Amino acid sequence: MLHKNISINKDGHLTFAGMDVTLLAEKYGTPLMLLDEDRIRENIRVYKAAMAEHFGADSFPLFASKALCFKGVYRIAKEEGIGMDAVSVGELYTAEAAGFDLSKAYFHGNNKTDEDIAFGVKHGVGTFVVDNEDELLALDKHLAAVNKRQKVLLRISPGIDPHTFKAVVTGSVDSKFGSPIQTGQAEAMTRLALSLDNIDLVGFHCHIGSQIFDHEPFVDAADIMLRFIAYIREKTGFTASVLNLGGGLGVRYVDSHPDIDYAEVIGEMAMVIKQRAQEIGIELPRIVLEPGRSLVADAGMTVYTVGSVKSIPGYKSYVSVDGGMPDNPRYALYESPYTVYNASRANAAADFPCSLVGRCCESGDIIQENIVIPRPVRGEYMAVAVTGAYNYSMASNYNRIPRPLILLISAGQEKVAVRRESNEDMIRNEV
Ligand SMILES: Cc1ncc(COP(=O)(O)O)c(C=O)c1O
């Protein structure tokens, strides 16, 4: 199977986190989002242990909450003792409501409003990751007004496109995020930060992309960032004590993707990064990573009920289910690959080529195209694996379809972590 938390039981039903998916679907209804809590904890522990072993005891992961945001996930992060990265007041608010200590939060975003800045400072966010000079000045002004200081990382774009790195080293200089080194804007922003009275600059941040399967692009980014740190030290005397290399390690969505050993990749990353720091002649700063997808994606599975199976002779077949782009917009956005199972007859011969589509009034409402599965019938359950990241957090109410219920599963027990949205919920703010 794709991941070790997916299996088939003696009844031929798909199981997830040790539970019969069809029984959960019958009990809780569909669309249903299953989350394997034990798997999330295991993923976090792998990162934590590998980072501490290879980068030192003060190095730890932050959970990139954009991947999955609801109170339960922050409770897990809190219990596992990791930090978190947020990009909005909504994420910070949710974390705080779950009892997460915001001194362990890193506040991102390329456009923090004055209200965002005020909220972050008031609620004791540990570190602001400042994207640009406008934000830096606005933050400093607010800090002066409330007589506070704030730890800050500056978001730098190292000019790397991880997918075409060797050929196009300047791929993301034109990114909307951060300040590029190449144009001199990163240095200018650093000088500005150092000149401001209420800003405690502690280091730098970069994030080069997502779904990256090996350590090389991270090492290349780290190399550029370490050189930048050395350059800034030489020019200004400022020594960065933190280097946040962002998130981005890949996840296996389909059989053709590699099954990454994260501890191994972090080990390889650390070996080269430490060596480069030595060559460049700087002490290794505290390394921070911000994984999102690789902590939660394989802990998720979405279960749907089949409504219709339509074959258009000479063309194609569609299996329509009771969810779609409102709960998983990733195929519509990026043509993201997913593995689809007929959860009701997982052992049957996969001989039916089709597309799995949603119920929205939109031809692009596709969950996955060109799959081959056991031919389903109305009422059977379909399961889409590895939906823990960027599904629920990207979900919408398009066509007024309520967001699914989230079940957290741990040690063979399930509990409702997020209730199914109701029609009343959807009109709550309407006057
Ligand atoms: C700044 C930053 N950090 C971390 C992440 C998490 O990336 P991933 O989920 O690929 O690990 C992202 C994703 O977009 C990001 O923009």
Kindly describe this structure:
This protein has 431 residues and is an alpha/beta fold. It has 2 domains: 6-36 and 297-427, Lyase, Ornithine Decarboxylase, Chain A, domain 1, CATH 2.40.37; 61-291, Alpha-Beta Barrel (TIM Barrel). Helices cover 31% and strands 23% of the residues. The protein has 12 helices and 21 strands. Strands 4, 14, 15, 16, 17, 18, 19, 20 and 21 form a 9-stranded mixed beta sheet that branches. Strands 5, 6, 7, 8, 9, 10, 11, 12 and 13 form a 9-stranded parallel beta sheet that branches. Strand 2 and strand 3 form a beta hairpin. Helix 2 (37-55) packs parallel to helix 9 and helix 8 runs parallel beside helix 9. The longest helix has 21 residues, at 216-236. Mean pLDDT is 95; it is low at 164-171. Bound molecules: pyridoxal-5'-phosphate. Pyridoxal-5'-phosphate binds next to helix 10.
Cα-based radius of gyration, to the nearest Å: 23 Å
What CATH architecture of the largest domain do you see? Answer: Alpha-Beta Barrel
Major sheet description:
9 strands, mixed
State mean pLDDT (0 to 100 scale): 95
Contiguous runs where pLDDT drops below 50 for at least 5 residues? 164-171
- Described by the principal axes of the CA atoms, the overall outline is globular
Q: How many E strands?
A: 21
In CATH, the homologous superfamily of the largest domain goes by the name Alanine racemase
CATH class of the largest domain: Alpha Beta
Specify the structural class: alpha/beta
CATH fold name of the largest domain: TIM Barrel
User: What is the tally of helical segments?
Assistant: 12
Q: Level of helix content?
A: 25-40%
Number of domains: 2
Strand residue content: 15-25%
Distance between the termini: 49 Å
Bound molecules: pyridoxal-5'-phosphate
